[in-house]
Amino acid sequence: MNTSLDTVPRVAVVGGGSWATAIVKILCEQSVKIRWWLRKPEDVAHISHYHHNPSYLTDVQIDTHKVEAHSDLKYVLSEADFVVLAVPAAFVQSALQGIDSEDLQGKVIVSAIKGMIPERNILVTDYVEQYYNVPPEQLCIIAGPCHAEEVALERQSYLTIAGYQKETAERFAALLNCRYIKATVNTDLYGVEYAAVIKNIVAIACGICHGLNHGDNFQAVLVSNAMQEIKCFLDTRFPLQRDVNSSAYMGDLLVTAYSQFSRNRTFGNMIGRGYSVKSAQVEMNMIAEGYYAVQSLYQVNQKYGAQMPIMEAVYKILYEKKSAQKEIDKLRKQLS
Known about the structure:
Elements: E1 10-14, H1 18-27, E2 33-37, H2 41-50, E3 67-70, H3 73-78, E4 82-85, H4 92-95, H5 101-104, E5 108-111, E6 116-117, E7 122-123, H6 124-132, E8 139-143, H7 148-152, E9 157-163, H8 166-176, E10 181-186, H9 189-211, H10 216-237, H11 247-258, H12 263-272, H13 277-284, H14 289-304, H15 309-319, H16 324-332
Parallel strand pairs: 1-2, 1-4, 2-3, 4-5, 5-8, 9-10
Antiparallel strand pairs: 6-7, 8-9
Helix pairs in contact: 9-10, 9-11, 9-12, 9-14, 9-15, 12-13, 14-15, 15-16
């Protein structure tokens, strides 16, 4: 790679959480220039002075020769070739408030968000395309089994960059490949993105079942049925020849369903143990994307009618305040 100042890739990262911090760490393994938007000016000042995020993955050292932290989003976006969105889906609209289509013109937009825009019930890539006039060919997503906490520890991880245009996805994947990250590409943009949304809902279901003291045998059956549920929805919504057993689909599902780092599983576990939604959210102090996504997906699926009993059980528990024990008992009879 030519590393002259004129040809070094320029990446804007939007978001100050653990996943955004992990992405910045990965990108710093390459010859890049990064502008990193964080909402709080005090976090920007801390990173600039002490070279680490004061709130998330605090052990990750930030190379400030490559990274410029800033709280002015227009400035962060102004010279970027790639823009990585890494804020919770519920905050995308507020995070991007104040920018317009011109600010994203000619840039590749990469969503690292595994959720849907609440109330609008659309994917993040749909939102960027519809409201900022970004062509589908300039949209990508980051998916695959890759928890931020393991990136911080430099444990071997695998990412999938999905995009309509393979060459565009390959360009961004090249910026992520390093000694502890292997990044591959996939052209099933919407299939991979929806699978990433659904797996968070499944992780909540797994957490609920764990909180209710269901064992490993049941969890395995739940996850295998969930994979069928994901395939059913994708085949109904976006019919396409795809291998749902690959890491972009199944791998992402497995790590979210079982990992100690899964905030969606943690959230579900608290619900299964009797916490209210509000009390679980307050105690976690982190966003479980599946909570918002299940309402959006439930409403979307009213149109398509895919058979999704796990998703429906989670929706009824979280939004209709149904008994977790009773809904999981009903679900048990539908699984095979």
